[in-house]
Fold this protein.
Amino acid sequence: MMSTTAMMDELTRRLEAWTALDRVADPLAAAVKKAVRPRAVRNVLSGTVIGHPLHPLLTDVPIGAWSMAALLDLVGGRGAAPAADLLVATGLAAAVPTAAAGLNDWSDTWGEDRRVGLVHAAANSTALVLYAASLAARAGGRRGAGRALGLAGFGAVMGGGYLGGHLVFVRGVKVNRTAWREGPAEWTDVLAEAELADGGHRMVQAGAVTVLLVRQGRRVHALDSVCNHMGGPLEQGTIENGCVVCPLHGSTFRLADGAVVRGPATSPQPGYETRVQDGRIQVRART
Ligand code: FES
């Protein structure tokens, strides 16, 4: 007999491989991408403005509210009914911005991640509908039905949460791709100065990491070449207005210090100090 772990592994593996989902997922992701294109919308929904992904932070509110509502419904007795109703309503209100931030993040995924993300969103949407029906039943005095619908919603939100956790902790969606990349602490020779023309850029190896060098006049900027959002190759990006734009989802990092000018990235791109010694460009990690 299969263990629970093996069953869940098998379930997620099947979802990842279920290509029929692409028929819904791909056009929906394209529509979401279009909706979040304005920089202000992108920066808010991604969490760029707070320097942290927004969606996982917001999920705490509906999950927390609905968990406590389930507890009160199960063991709180008649006196806890108003508090349970308030928690159901709070979860519903918080679920709307949470879903918007999640859709924004999901639109940047593809393939297996996009399929699992679609089912994650479907489970949470089902929870939303069940909780809305639960609130309506509670308001109409049908407390038994309201409790039953709430508990069904709680089951759906737990299923959605499992898949959300799978996306982040197993698939690595939205995990900072530069978290374990460490450049050289000592000055390291990477390129002849003559090989980097003014306005030009090159990717070079510096110790264990690859670095994007960009020359602007007398200054040479150096950023990690792997976009921290989801690993895009910055050496294939475009250089404009003192920034590099990632070719995958358009995250825009200031060359001088790696600051995020436009999301979906939420963390600054790691940068390096540079100097020219005897006609050679050298880099080292910022101290
Ligand atoms: S990988 Fe997503 S913006 Fe760079």
In short: Residues 111-139 form the longest helix (29 residues).
